[in-house]
Write a structure and sequence with these properties.
heterodimer, A: 396 residues, alpha+beta, Butyryl-Coa Dehydrogenase, subunit A, domain 1, Butyryl-CoA Dehydrogenase, subunit A, domain 2, Butyryl-CoA Dehydrogenase, subunit A, domain 3, 4-stranded mixed beta sheet, 4-stranded antiparallel beta sheet, globular, B: 385 residues, 3 domains
């Protein structure tokens, strides 16, 4: 029946009075180009073999590829032109992050740009921006965020215990941060520390190479480089406070929000690719003399996966659009991260079921995605955390 | 991507809200679940028509407003939010008018579109038959040419709004020799024609939800053939894409959604972890569903007929509606079993009505199984089974 199906022309709006509405749920032409460039580049440079090698490598990234990405303008994409940036938006960055998720790109892009650079852009002084943003944009320095701590489950101000005490006009930082991405190769750490009992937190921009910082790379599900970072009497000048003294938490919340959304973007790329791999596999794989994709049960699994993938994309882009427009979006971010954390798990459960046994071996690429999606689910607030945010936004 | 509405659209939404709130304030009707398909209120339909809100997207030459699909989305979203009794015009506005616009002759357009727009022509659908559910191409109702007429014989079933319908959009077999989906044609049949009879069917909630509609030697002039002879099956696929596309699949029970959240807040149940997490999950699912439907509207806005996109949104959204009804019953506990009108009944019995009624949501307008087939084969390109 497919061959005869010709959609008619119910375009009631197609007359002179027609006026294009603002809402548009597809990418702009420019974003499509960005996506294509990114996909082509990463297909060429970021094979799964390379991803596997980087998981094993101590540094976890390739300096050469890093520089190429900087030369393409990726690090600077979402920064203003006056710092040498590309003057594009967070929505454009979202497209790029999606492609990075699709490629399972290893390395400190997320840490440097989303956690580091954009935070400095948010709250840094003009002097700090002039000093650091060009370094981000040109790929010269690696930045990251030291936020979580041992025993830390939820992202709230009261659970920050790493202390920064004032001494002779400087601050001395002591304590342990955990799950700090890429700290082992970072040049700068944005460290969230307590500067006042109870709720006074401050963000410091610390020199990550200082010997008073000790860094241990953890062994993780995704093979990414999450670290324990121990501050032992690290001296940070007051001039390196980022944003306002004792008032750091609201900035941290914005950082977490953006990071959670950034992770959602990566997951979309991730599950979109997994859907395609799974559908291709279902078309190719024959059992009982027919492609398994012709069985309704497999078709319905795939339909369910597609629904989760598309819905994940729309909730994420809706929140990203609001963030980009400067609209309050706590609820939308929470809906996105809560939804994606569960939707991606459903997608992987079905992807593995359809792939059969080959999908649970390292011979097949599926495991790269499975492992990364789980890590992203846990990063910057899991489903439970964001469900509670939704609850309070609903006034429950 | 852009998820914003224009200032004009914002004003339009407010205008619709003001209108509906005024209607409620005047006591014309009470918000109800399923009112888009069960709330028959000719006065309301007329007042909506007077504002130009039926056939909103149709060209002006046929009485429409030539507005875009997002405007219609806003309009229907608000109608559903307030549980407004829009059943008299819903089918004509949503799909039959569109089918006439897409496939009908100039004569048919002139005859029907302006009357639908004025709220003066109510439509019901004649698709399913006792032996024809998901497999629509198997339909047996016959239409045989006789001079300038077709003579229709057969039985249609699950026809919503039938007792109010003045016309039926009927699919009948015009070429029994042809492959089955190439021998079906679409007709507009006047419900007052000799030989048309209706028998109400009572649904699980006790509501007259549908009718069986019988055609006994019903003579229909050839000018009421919609589109090409024997192309009816392809036309109905197109129409079904629209039938599945809308907000009613997500928000048909919005008054209950609103009420159960308020109820949980008022009774402090929302502090109980179980209730809290259930309501949050509903809210998340609702927001997701709304975006899937916005996507469908955005596809239409691009000038494409939504196909697997509306299959996806409808399959998803009816699950939300079932989930909503289930959660509402759980939150209400033993009071959930009380029927409308009973002593102690909470929320005017909406939860019970939705709980029972929602069993049919994933069956009507394409079962979830058929919709997933469409999504898998048309959307993902998997081979037909």
């Amino acid at each position: 029946m497919v061959e005869d199906y010709s959609p008619g022309a119910q375009k009631g709006a197609g007359n002179a009075e027609y006026r294009r509405a603002a809402m548009r749920l597809t990418l702009t032409e420019e974003q499509e180009m960005l996506r294509k460039t990114a996909r082509d580049f990463l297909t060429d440079k970021c094979s799964k073999k390379f991803v596997g090698q980087m998981e094993e490598a101590e540094t976890g990234y390739s300096r050469e590829l890093w520089q190429e990405m900087a030369d393409l303008g990726w690090m600077g994409l979402a920064f203003p032109g006056k710092y040498d940036g590309g003057d594009m938006s967070f929505l454009d960055l979202a497209v790029l992050l999606e492609e990075m998720g699709r490629a399972c790109l290893p390395g400190p892009f997320f840490s440097t740009v989303v956690l580091g650079g954009l935070s400095i852009l948010d709250i840094g002084s003009e002097e700090q921006k002039q000093e650091y943003l060009p370094k981000v944009i040109r790929g010269e320095k690696i930045f990251t965020l030291a936020l979580a701590e041992p025993g830390y489950r939820n992202y709230d101000a009261s659970s920050v215990t790493v202390e920064a005490t004032r001494k002779d006009g400087n601050y001395i930082i002591n304590g342990t941060k955990l799950f700090v991405p890429d700290a082992h190769i970072a040049d700068y750490l944005l460290c969230v520390a307590r500067t006042k009992p109870r709720k006074g937190t401050t963000i410091f921009l610390a020199d990550a190479k200082n010997p008073r910082i000790e860094c241990t790379v953890l062994k993780t599900i995704a093979g990414d480089k999450l670290c324990e970072v121990v501050f032992d009497q690290l001296l940070v000048p007051s001039a390196d406070i980022l944003g306002r003294l004792n008032q750091g938490w609201s900035a941290v919340q914005t950082i977490i929000q953006r990071a959670a959304l950034g992770k959602c973007c990566e997951v979309i790329g991730n599950i979109q690719r997994v859907l395609e791999m799974t559908v291709d596999y279902a078309k190719d794989r024959k059992q009982f003399d027919r492609p398994i994709g012709s069985f309704q049960v497999i078709q319905h699994y795939c339909a369910d996966m597609a629904t989760d993938v598309d819905s994940a994309r729309f909730v994420t882009y809706q929140a990203a659009w609001m963030l980009n427009e400067g609209l309050p979006c706590a609820k939308e971010v929470a809906v996105a991260k809560a939804w994606i954390s569960e939707a991606s798990q459903r997608v992987f459960a079905l992807a593995h079921q359809i792939h059969g046994a080959i999908g649970v071996t390292v011979e097949h690429d599926l495991h790269y995605y499975t492992r990364r999606a789980k890590a992203a689910e846990l990063a910057f607030g899991d489903a439970d955390f964001y469900r509670e945010v939704v609850a309070s936004e609903m006034g429950l | 991507m852009d998820f914003g509405f224009t200032e004009e659209q914002g004003k339009f939404r407010q205008e619709v809200r003001d209108f509906l709130e005024e209607e409620i304030k005047k006591g014309y009707w009470e918000p109800a679940c399923d009112a888009w398909v069960q709330g028959f209120d000719q006065g309301f339909t007329k007042r909506v028509a007077d504002r130009g809100w039926i056939g909103l997207t149709w060209p002006k030459e046929y009485g429409g407003q030539g507005r875009n699909h997002l405007d219609r989305l806003i309009l229907t979203e608000e109608m559903l939010r307030y549980g407004a009794p829009a059943a008299c015009h819903w089918f004509g506005d949503r799909q039959v008018g569109g089918a006439i616009l897409s496939f009908g002759s100039e004569e048919l357009k002139k005859e029907f579109l302006s009357r639908i727009v004025k709220g003066e022509a109510y439509f019901g659908l004649g698709m399913s038959e006792p032996g024809t559910g998901s497999d629509l191409a198997s339909l047996q109702t016959r239409a045989i040419e006789d001079g300038d007429y077709y003579v229709i014989n057969g039985q249609k079933t699950w026809t919503s709004c039938a007792s109010f319908s003045q016309y039926f959009d009927v699919y009948a077999r015009t070429d029994p020799e042809a492959p089955r989906h190439r021998g079906i044609s679409e007709f507009i049949v006047d419900a007052r024609s000799p030989g048309v009879s209706r028998i109400p069917m009572i649904d699980i909630t006790g509501t007259e939800a549908w009718n069986d509609v019988f055609f006994d030697n019903v003579r229909v002039h050839k000018r009421y053939l919609v589109g090409e002879k024997n192309r009816g099956f392809y036309q109905v696929l197109h129409q079904l894409d629209y039938e599945r596309s809308g907000m009613e699949r997500l928000m048909g029970n919005y008054p209950l959604f609103d009420a159960i959240i308020q109820f949980a807040k008022d009774k402090k149940l929302s502090k109980e972890p179980e209730v809290r997490s259930r309501l949050v999950q509903l809210q998340i699912e609702f927001e997701v569903g709304r975006l899937l439907i916005y996507r469908v509207a955005s596809v239409m806005e691009e000038g494409r007929a939504p196909n697997w996109e509306s299959a996806m949104s409808k399959a998803y959204c009816t699950e939300f509606e079932k989930h909503l009804a289930g959660v509402a019953m759980e939150v209400l506990g033993p009071y959930g079993q009380l029927k409308s009108g009973s002593k102690y009944v909470p929320l005017r019995g909406m939860a019970l009505h939705s709980y029972l009624g929602s069993k049919g949501y994933s069956l009507q307008a394409g079962t979830t199984e058929v919709l997933k087939n469409i999504l898998a084969t048309r959307g993902l390109g998997l081979p037909s089974s």
